[in-house]
Amino acid sequence: xxxxxxSKHNSDQLYKIRHSAEHILTQAxxxxxxxDKFYMAMGPATDDGYYFDFEPLNxxxxxxxxxxxxxxxxxxxxxxxxxxxxxxxxxxQAKELFKDNPYKLDWLNxxxxxxxxxxxxxxxxxxxxxxxGPHVENTSEIKAFKLLSIAGAYWHGDxxxxxxxxxxxxxxxxxxxxxxxxxxxEEAKKRDHRKLGPQLGIFFIDETAPGMPxxxxxxxxxxxxxxxxxxxxxxKRGYLETITPQLNKKExxxxxGHWDHYREHMFICNMGENEIYCLKPMNCPNAMTxxxxxxxxxxxxxxxxxxxxxxxxxxxxxxxxGLLRVQKFAQDDAHIFVTEEQIGEEYKRILEIAxxxxxxxxxxxxxxxGTRPDDFMGDIATWDKAEKELEQxxxxxxxxxxxxxxxxxxxxxxxxxxxxxxxxxxxQTGTIQLxxxxxxxxxLKYTDSDGSEKTPVVIHRVIYGSLERFMGILIEQFAGAFxxxxxxxxxKIIPITDSQHEYAxxxxxxxxxxxxxxxLDDRSEKMQAKIRDAQMEKIPYMLIIGGREVDSNSVSVRxxxxxxxxxxxxxxxxxxxxxxxxxxxLNLIK
RNA sequence: GCCCGGAUAGCUCAGUUGGUAGAGCAUCCCCUUGGUAAGGGGAAGGUCAUGAAUUCGAAUUUCAUUCCGGGCUCCA
Length: 590
What we know:
The chain is an alpha+beta fold. Strands 11, 16, 17, 18, 19, 20, 21, 22 and 25 form a nine-stranded mixed sheet that branches. The longest helix is centred in the first third of the chain and has 21 residues, at 13-33. The chain is globular and about 85 Å long. The structure holds one RNA strand.
C-alpha cells in the first residue's frame, strides 16, 4: 500500500544515491555470501530509501543480525571508489548475460515485449545488473546509508508467485540527513496510536478478541462525540438513521452476492441446517431490505438511510494493524437511493460534508477516483459516463485528487478519501461508491413520474470510514492531545492544599452542570506532581486552586501547552471554554 | 496466508557461558499541606505468553501454538 512510485524522481541525485546504494547492497551480499546463495530479482529506489528482492538458494537464510556484516562490506565498496558505468546491449546479449537468473529473464521478456532499450550498469569489474538507471558515477558518492529491515514480498506483487526475501534500506546525501530521518521515524513512533491509545486509557485489544478493540471510558467519550457531531450534521441534511440486524441468514447474502464473493471474510454461526447465520460484514444488504419494504415514488428520492451498527469482518492473520485494520468496527455508513439524474448533485452534497468534517479536524486528505476494474459488472457506457461525471465534480470543486486506474469496486466507480498515518503509510478512510448492481440483485423499484417502474442507483458512502480507523488516525494527528471538544477530560481541578477542597468541589459541580468533562485531583500530592500527571494525560486545562483563587472566586489556568494564563474569574473561564467547545475549535483559549 | 523478528511485575526495561528472577514508575499504607512537569518511608506484586522436548536442573536450548511488530497479499 505504501509502495511508492519513485519514477518521478528519476533525475534526482537522491534517487541515484539510493538506487546505487541498492546495487552496492547486492554486490556486498555477493561478496559476503557468494553469488550462488541467491537470485537477484529486483531492487528500486523509493521515496524514503530502497529495497532489494532476492530468492534465497541452497538453504540460504538471512536475518537482521546479518546487517552489520553486510553494511561493513558496503562501506568497503564505497571506499574502493568503484565506477558505475552504463551500457546498452541487445536482447540476445542480455539473455546470454543473465541466462542463469530466471527473474532477470522474466524481466527481459517483458522489456522485449515493450520493445524498450536494454541497459546494464556495471560497478567496477565484479558486479553487473540489468537496470534502467540512472546511477551515481562512483560508489564513493554514497555518503550515508543504512539497512533497515527484512520482509517478504511476492514476485511482481502477486500472491500466486513465489515469496522473495526483501531487504529495506535507506541512503542520504549526508550523514546528518540520515540521522535526521532516523530521528524523525523515532519521533513519529511516539505518536503511534497503538502505544498512545492504551497509555491514555482510550482503548486496548485483548488477545482473546484480536482486532476487536475494547473502548475504555475515555475512548467511548470520543467515539460518542464523533457520532454526535455526525448525527447532528447528517440530520440537517436529510439523512434518516436506522438500526438493522447484526445476524442475518445466509440467504440474505446469497441474494446480495456476498455469500459467493465475500464468505471468507464473514463470521458464520452454524445453528444447524437451514439455519446458518452470518454476522453482518457490511450494511448494504440490510439497507436494500429496508428499501424493499413498501412502494416508492420518484418523489421519495434521494432516500438517505444511515446505519452505524457494528460490523465484523474476518481478516487473515497478519492483516490486522491496531485500530487501522480491525475485525470489529462501525462505519458512519449511509446508503442513498437516487435516480441516475441525481447522482451528480448527490455526490456534490456528500463531498461538501467530507470537506466540512475534515476541516473540523484540521486534516488534509487526498481523493482517489477509482475507475472500472477488470472484473466489473454492468455496461461500459454507464461506467464511462459515471466516471466522467465524478471527475467533473472533483474538478469543479477544486479537490486534490488523482485517478486510480482499475481501482473502482466491481459494481461501480468510487471516490476514496486517503490519509497518512504517523509513519507515512496511506490509509483509506472515507469512500463514496456508486452502485448499479445491488439494487438490481434485490430487484428494487420505484415509480417514475411517467408511471414506469425503474431501478434506483445506490450511493454507498462513509465520511469517517470506520470510526476505529478514524480514531487511530486522530490519535496520531493530535498525538493524543485532542481538541477540547473531543478531550475525554477537558479540565482538571488541582487544589494546592486540602483547605481548598470545598471550593474545588463547588466548581467541580458547577462545571459538570454546564456539561464540561472535569475531574478533581484531591490526592494528597504536591501540586507539581498533580500538574505533571495532568500533563501526561494531555488534559487541555489545569485549574489551579489556592487560597488566592478561593478568595477571588477565580481559577488559575494552566494550559497543556505550558502556558500559564494566571487567575481568571470563574465565570469568564466557563464562558471561554464553552465557546471553544461549541465551535469545535482546534486551539486552546490562548 | 506468506517472509523476518518479538513476548520477563499493571507500565518501561535489566537478567552474564542453562543453577527456579531484579530496578524504576504505577498500586496500597504511613509521614508530608506545598503556587505551575515527579516530597519521603514502608508493604505487596511474576507458573518468565501457552504446550511439549532435551537436561540432574530451562526465563535462558529445540519444536509447536497463540498473540504482537515490520513487510507482502488483501482491505474501511
